[in-house]
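Hello Y.,

Per our agreement to keep a running log of every chain we model this quarter, I'm adding this entry. I've kept the format consistent with earlier entries: sequence first, then predicted structure.
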Amino acid sequence: MRKPIIAGNWKMNKTPAEGALLVNELKPLVADAECDVVVCVPATDIYAVAEACKGSNVHLGAQNVHFAESGAYTGEISADMLLALGVEYVIIGHSERRQYFGETDETVNKRTLTALNKGLIPIVCVGETLEERETGKTEEVLRRQVVEGLKGVEDITKLVVAYEPVWAIGTGRTATSEQANETIGFIRNVIAENFCPKCAAAVRIQYGGSMKGSNAKELMAQPEIDGGLIGGASLKAADFALVVNYNK
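Predicted structure for the entry above:
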């Protein structure tokens, strides 16, 4: 059985004080959650949120990591820096990083390998744009992102994959539960072909396209969907708790 994982991606939101307050409000609401609960916060919030997470079942994640241990990489953060602050998870290759900051399959791969080697749990994002979906390129794009982005990974079960249809992020549009399940099933098949069927059956694959309290139960009922990478609905404790507690 794959344990579900619900991760909040705060993106560029919340000051340290606001972030700590959100987590303190969240903790009692998700204390009995049957899934892994993660908050992926801005770098400036990591210390404050780490303190707030202590003694709870809320795990701490970052939103990016560099592939070098140190050096002249102004504005970047290394895996050792994240680990020193108590970070466990890190988002890699989010569509916004690809769209706005030049992230490529190659850099996703380098960041992923470094994160794994250091003991972080990568949440590796893949997904197609609206144009790519409408022109029938969804499977081509996803296959490339999975194969190139995860090249050289020795144990695929030590990371999480997040399928985020770019056309459904922040637009209010959501893939139907059947669409999401079918596409995640395709991703799992690609992993089976490139790693092994047993590994593919064990790896957790999230859905990351506008999952919220109102549709989480339906999406999570699909056999291929193992969780969600949650954007807007993770910025309020009550809203995020509704997703986390989708089965209650």
